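Question: Send over one sample?
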Amino acid sequence: MDDKGIIDLYFARDEKAISESMKSYNDRLFRFALRFLSDPRDAEECVNDAYVRAWDTIPPNRPNNLFAYLAALCRNAALDVIKKNSAQKRSAQLVELTQEMNECIPDSNNITEEQSEEFSKCINEYLATLPKDKRAVFLGRYWYNESISDIAKRTGFSQSKVKTMLHRMREDLRKYIKGKEGII
């Protein structure tokens, strides 16, 4: 069944929507969740949470890309697990990514909700200016939580090139954000 048919099932409040979502995307979502979490049980729970959240949010939302929508829900669930676990111990990967992004985004503890929305808009605008290959590297690292080596394998770039690209994009993003009035 295609995405439109599955989404129509959600709108009809037909529980078959979840089973069809699972048939289409369960394996991909599980692998996606494992990029964030080391415990397969936690990853499985995040995938299941994504289906529950989809049930709760479709309708009123009608996603254009069901996998991307489910992946965002799964990612948020995984980040919730990381936050919960970070009270016990910090995730080294999350700390590394946070440190990288702190080069261009100020401390999120001092950002208002309005500023957060402006940052999101600004980042999306910046990403729209990038060529497809650079955007894929940036999103792979900071949205999908991919390692440098995984990005290099996927793109065919050397690890050194990926690191350089990411550094330059963070620097460009910092300048782009700085050029926007009222964000910082």
Summary: The CA atoms of residues 61 and 80 lie 22 Å apart.
